[in-house]
Amino acid sequence: MKVKAVIDGDAIKLKEPLHFKVKEFEVDIPDDYIQKEEKTEGTNFLESLWGTIRQFPEKNIDWKNEWYKHSEEKHG
Amino acid sequence: MDSFLIDVNIFLDIVFRRDTRSIICFERLVNLGKELYVTSSMLPILDYFFTKYKVNKKEFKKHFVTKFKIITSTGKEGYEALEYKDSEDALIALAFKRVCPMGVIVTNDKEMESCGLPVYSPEELLAVLRDVSEGGRQIPILDLKKQYRYIMEEIEDALLKTAADAQYILGPQVKELEDKIAKYLDVKHCIGASSGTEALVLSLRALAIKLKGQEYFDKADEIITTPFTFTATGDAILRAGATPVFVDIDLATYNIDPSKIEEYLKSTIRNPQSKIRGIIPVHLYGQPCNMDEIMKIAKEYNLFVLEDVAQAFGGTWNGKKLGSVGVAGTFSFFPSKNLGGFGDGGMVSTNDDELAELMRMLLKHGGKDKYNVEHIGYNARLDTLQAAILLAKFKYIDEFNERRRKIAEIYNHELSSVHGVVIPMNHSTIQPCNKATSQNHDGHVYHQYTLRVNNGKRDALQTHLKEKGISTMVYYPVPLHKMKVFEGRCKLSGSLKDSENAVTEVLSLPVEPLQTEDITHEVIKSIRELKL
Questions:
Q1: Strand-by-strand arrangement of the B449-453 sheet
Q2: Close Cβ partners of B245 (under 8 Å, ≥ 6 residues apart)
Q3: Beta strands at B346-350 and B328-332: parallel, antiparallel or unpaired
Q4: How many angstroms away from the CA of B50 is the closest CA of chain A?
Q5: Is residue B394 predicted with pLDDT exceeding 90?
Q6: Which site among A49, A58, A72 would you substitute to test the B interface, given the most B Cβ atoms closer than 10 Å to its Cβ?
Q7: Residues in chain A with pLDDT < 70?
Q8: Is the dihedral of CA A41, A42, A43, A45 positive or negative?
Q9: In chain A, where does DSSP find H-type helix?
Q10: Cα separation, B328 vs B305, whole angstroms
């Protein structure tokens, strides 16, 4: 991707900073080097799910066993 | 590696924040835009824990449906599952395998492998996802399997209910679809047909009966259309007994050039033998024809205008839906169309009561009473099953057309500066002929995103893209007037050089409504790699 670059700065320490711009030019940066915006879709989705839960279990659970136990109690 | 079934234990670990690796793996799957599934057989288990931990189920469902699809098992899979050691797991895996044969099961239960799909734990999957997230993928021009999975729940519900209801011929779904589409197009009548081609033939036959009082047009009757289209347009004219007159296109829009229609009409004005009856403009690739000009010419020369909207469902001209501008419009529901069924299907739209009545007769063998018919008819009804599928898909047409436009916007933006490539001009960049009435919005629905490749490099670009795993198509390689079927059966209006150039230069790029921006950019990057 070609991007416009400008040398821009105030390198000399002055009482009143002197801002200067010199030379506008194009640089060709390979696409691989361009930082893509960090994706947050997954985090947002999980937070939306977690927002619907009023009570989280405090310890790890063997989900399947608990389900089997519940089924047994229900159906005898 | 695009579809993932999240097994019960992993799903619950994620939802109840019990396992960090599962959560990280899941976040990555969502960020990569992967398809995520659970099965209906898992729901009672999930529901038990939702109740136990006081989940607001209504709110949960609202978020859940944005990322997950629920797969239903069939009875046959139930019988098959009984042959496995763990029938509960087998039922999940077999249903998932049917819908996603290339899918992956995310579970800690290695025994699920016995059903024939790869099984990964969250930790294993994280390592693999890093490797396969970039490159090496095949990019189809259209992905009907992906589209099916996107609206699977509604389609399957429609299919099963219609099959069980057994009203297979002109069942209530056909009427419901006709009414809904008529309302959408803002026309009085919509008539379902067995295909887009039959919709054209039915319309022309009805026009012949109405205008001439005879079953078919005569050979001396001429109908103007474009030579740069699918053969059905010209073929339907022949089947209705008339002679197609091919008028050249405007290369900028690929559509019939109204100024060339007028040239032809002016050239024949002094010919008493000439019996020009109508014009069939084709809104090719989803791009509206210049209907202001075409309607003005038709009015001046007393011609009918039958719009061929096969490729432009949902497209507009000056805010009017295509198919509502001419005397009638014909639509195709071929699977690849913007609104496509699971086989052939079509429709005609019209505000003309007489034409509507005639077409309803013609598609049912030619009479109001099929045991005592008046006209030479067809068996050309739209199947109830197709109507049911189309009703489910119709809900998504505006969303999908918008997705197509967004993909086209990216292509337009990124390819406009590529040397040797001419991007398609869209409605918003065409100077409207009537500035007072024309609204300059984009009525294009990008059934195809078709560009032109100059300097004889089209085939080289297609080969290059194929090597990169990117599918493209040439629509169309031969203009109608060069086909054998039209030899001695058509008339040409002057030079058709723009149509003849178009067939050597056009190339349609992937414009799958569900394709991600990353994929669109991958196509663009690959085009830029080749010196054109």
A1: B421-422, B449-453, B506-509
A2: B222, B223, B224, B225, B264, B276, B490, B491, B492, B493
A3: antiparallel
A4: 8
A5: yes
A6: A49
A7: 1-25, 30-37
A8: positive
A9: 41-50, 63-75
A10: 7
Q: Do B17 and A52 touch (CB under 8 A)?
A: no
pLDDT at B130: 63
Q: Is the pLDDT of residue B436 over 50?
A: no
B518 → chain A, closest CA residue: A36
Residue B431 has pLDDT above 50, yes or no: no
| Integer CA distances (angstroms), B378 to B327, B353, B367, B373, in order | 22, 20, 10, 11
Tokens of B115: 């059903």
Mutation site, A37, A40, A53, interface B, largest B CB count within 10 A: A53
Q: Using the structure block, give the residue that is written with the tokens 């933006």.
A: B413
Average pLDDT score, chain B = 93
Report the pLDDT value the prediction gives residue B430, as an integer from 0 to 100. 46
CB contact residues (below 8 A), chain A span 28-67, against chain B: 31, 39-43, 45-46, 48-57, 60-61, 63-64, 67
Distance from CA of B126 to the nearest CA of A (A): 14
Give the single-character DSSP code of B167.
-
* Shortest Cα distance, chain A CAs vs residue B245, angstroms: 48
Instruction: Report percent pLDDT > 70 for chain B.
Output: 95
Residues of B in contact with A63 (CB under 8 A): 8-9, 12-13, 45, 49
A40 Cα to chain B: minimum distance (Å): 7
CB–CB of B317/B325 below 8 Å? yes
Identity of the amino acid at B492? L
Check if A68 contacts B (Cβ < 8 Å): no
* pTM for this entry: 0.88
For the stretch B172-185, pLDDT in tens is: 999 999 999 999 99
Query: What pLDDT score was predicted for residue B199?
Result: 98
**HSE on the CB side for B234, CA within 13 Å?**
23
| Chain A with chain B: Cβ pairs closer than 8 A | 72
Residues B211, B354: Cα–Cα separation, whole Å = 11
Q: Which of B8, B27, B54 sits opposite A54 (nearest CB)?
A: B54
pLDDT, average across residues B426-436: 46
Q: ipTM score of the complex?
A: 0.75
Least confident of B75-79, B290-294, B296-300, B441-445: B441-445
- The whole-angstrom separation of Cα B105 and Cα B113 is 9
